[in-house]
Amino acid sequence: MADIRGSYDDLFTAVPNALAGFLDAGDVGGSAAVFVDGEPVVDVWGGFADAGRTAVWERDTVTNVWSVTKTMTALSALVLADRGDLDVDAPVARYWPEFAAAGKEKVLVRHLLSHTAGLPDYDGPVQELYDWAAVTARLAALAPQWEPGTAAGYHSLTQGFLVGEVVRRITGRTPGAFFAEEVAGPLGADFRMGLSAEHDHRVALAVPPPGQDEDYIAGAAGQDPTPSTATGIRLRDGNSVSWRRAQIPAASGFGNARSVALVQSAMACAGTVGGVRLLSPAGCARAWEEQYSGEDRILGMPMSWGLGYGRFGTTYGWGGWGGSLVMIDPDARMTVAYVTNQMREPGADQRGLELVMAAYEGLQGLAG
């Protein structure tokens, strides 16, 4: 069995065993964490940080978690809403006047967070993603593809810029700076949007699924997603220095399972974790109030969307391209996170779900 390092409560042995199973099956590296009541009951890692399997995955190894980043951007917006600085029922144009162009004057902030704004496609050059002013200006000029609020379509790249620009207009800070100063910093969480060069030596670059190479392109997991003219993001883009340095708040967050679980434990624990209060219980509850339920036009499958999170029964959270995932259970005050550099094809990837189920085994032991 693969060598798994870290610590875990004996009741939760199924989680490190699951991670070891992924590595034994050929995965390169990864980390898993489970927090209950804001405290780690699992914090483990294993494997390698590079495709050549020469650099061991260390305690402080970080990797791109892709769309798990959306949960960090959403949390930032929810913090502002809880403080009374952001009204999710307000038109986006209240905070970002230029956004009212092309029939978007009735798009509400909640539409951005729930993928119902009608702006799912980014169709500019990949290089433009690294220029905040250019990409937000492009989005401000777009016309919605449907009447906002009436349908959902996963805003895979655009959501982060849209919500992030609202955060920037309100606070005067980039979303990465706001997150660092108001969320990650107070919690002591090793998660960043916009990674500086000093952290490059800790990064585990993404490894493509078997049979793919660095030209592997992001795609939806659903069988019949709506055809899109959106710019394709390749694995080589995500592995580039430019991607790491940029703030792409829907997809370029870097962290490990411990940091993801720590931050999102605030949502599982009524807004307070480790003695740090990020938002009120009511502010947390707002996150998973259903905004839309039905077929997602981009994902091609049924979805229930909250404010920045996908809803799954009594849990909520989201996953990233290639396999990383965070799941929040407010009833159990539990958060489960899985972060990996080993990508798998979306339709054949059950690793995150397996880890969540393993965590519930331990939770049952706690209850017993």
Task: Draw up the topology in text.
Layout: E1 4-8, H1 14-24, E2 29-36, E3 39-47, E4 63-64, H2 69-82, H3 109-113, H4 132-141, H5 158-171, H6 175-187, E5 192-193, H7 235-238, H8 241-245, E6 253-255, H9 257-268, E7 272-273, E8 276-277, H10 281-287, E9 292-296, E10 301-305, E11 310-312, E12 315-319, E13 325-329, E14 334-340, H11 351-367
Antiparallel strand pairs: 1-3, 2-3, 2-14, 4-6, 5-6, 7-8, 9-10, 11-12, 12-13, 13-14
Helix pairs in contact: 1-11, 2-5, 2-10, 4-5
Structure summary:
With 368 residues, this protein is α+β, with helices and mostly antiparallel strands.
Taken in chain order, the helices and strands follow as: EHEEEHHHHHEHHEHEEHEEEEEEH
Percent of residues in β-strands = 15-25%
**Average of the residue pLDDT scores:** 94
Structural class determined from secondary elements: alpha+beta
Helical run tally = 11
In percent, how helical is the residue content?
A: 25-40%
Compute the gyration radius: what is it?
Answer: 19 Å
Taking the alpha carbons of the first and last residues, their distance comes to 29 Å
Reported for the largest beta sheet, the result is:
7 strands, antiparallel
Number of strands: 14
Biggest sheet strand order reads 1-3-2-14-13-12-11
| Overall form | globular
The unreliable regions are: 220-227
